[in-house]
């Protein structure tokens, strides 16, 4: 008979182990994308590869780690995974990510030698000889995207496999930082394995296995309780990425049919774009992972991630489509996995607008810079993601300037870090007034950050959705994302989805989208509009035009008669 108290103690011990893995990783990583932004996925898994504890990072990484470990078990066999072994997997179609998102995992053995689980860490390393430094935006097959490791030992029986590290060293533009980050992953999974082994030693292998099973059974029970509360039906939505990186004039369709029954939550991507040439195709593990993120946010948002949470979820894809890449389809620019989740929300908003927010700004809006730092003579590469506005919802306004929901737990790179580690100066950084869609509950505003380069550099604009963020229940669309190089100068040009050579004095402005509005804007409380103007989120002009709220000159008091007149006027005459 199960001891509920012991199970709960073990559960918290596993969560603590995962947290220690993340702390160890951030303490030892070379790459600011890891230790500042928290671009990682950490997991403690049972013997089947199912996650039983994680640490917050990029949510789609952690669920993708399950998929990758299971593929490695299938490829290598459990018997090949000995004590002290540590494996590297970055073959996209198995690992659930592109080549630079390396999954490092270790089998965990109890003191008696029994296999009791796995510890995993996935991060973004800087270079594995992909065809372009930094990031690949225009590959047309897998062979342009770097070196593949299909479950390769970095360590065997505790001894470093020098041959593998030498291959990496001689096939990386930034070998010290790449190998340093891989070793940080190794150190981190060792920490997770050690803590999990201590739990097995203290409570017994059988008790640990029983607790892991109970953890996932309880996770499934919670998910089914959450599923039962959702409206039932079938809804369809389609949205578009700007392009595939090759054909810049053709948007790429992400098409979701969502069906909720008493027993299942089904997401069908079968009608999404097929045969996409550029590198935005998703490995199937990442498609499952992004769907898992959406499903968890609706059913079990308040409990830690465990594999059981996803038992009612079923994902349908079409092999060869943008949502199910097969070899040798290119997969490097994985932005589809960051944007497709809101297509599911768009479908659900048709059937449950009181549950769903409007669209966020809609993208992760990443800027990456690289080159040679004249202060040190060394190669540099730094990146950061920018915050967006969230969509308004039935209970209130969207949040202003926070990380896109595909990357909960992540942060952006601070100004001080970017200016210290690279030849860039941040000219301005702040909220983007009037970017949130008007509504009874307005969309949150996005942000704008301007990077001025002080040495010859390459700027990579990772932004793939510049169409207006959609609204819900009669709200208005938000202002879309946009990335511009040298705005207002004769050489002004678009920077989104581009690989740009920049000279000293060039400026790249990353302006992120505001969320869509929820409900008719003229139903918004005039006092809330006045507060928005006072706080700099809405201009006086937009208050009058979009909300019908007129403020008295020189202050923030409402001109009630002018407001009443404006709101009562027929549309088109205001």
From TrEMBL:
Protein name: Hydantoinase B/oxoprolinase family protein
Example of a GO cellular component annotation carried by this entry: cytosol
Pfam families, alphabetized: Hydantoinase_B (PF02538)
GO molecular function: 5-oxoprolinase (ATP-hydrolyzing) activity
Gene Ontology annotations of biological process type: glutathione metabolic process
Hydantoinase B/oxoprolinase domain location: 3-520
UniProt xrefs under InterPro entries: Hydantoinase_B, Oxoprolinase-like
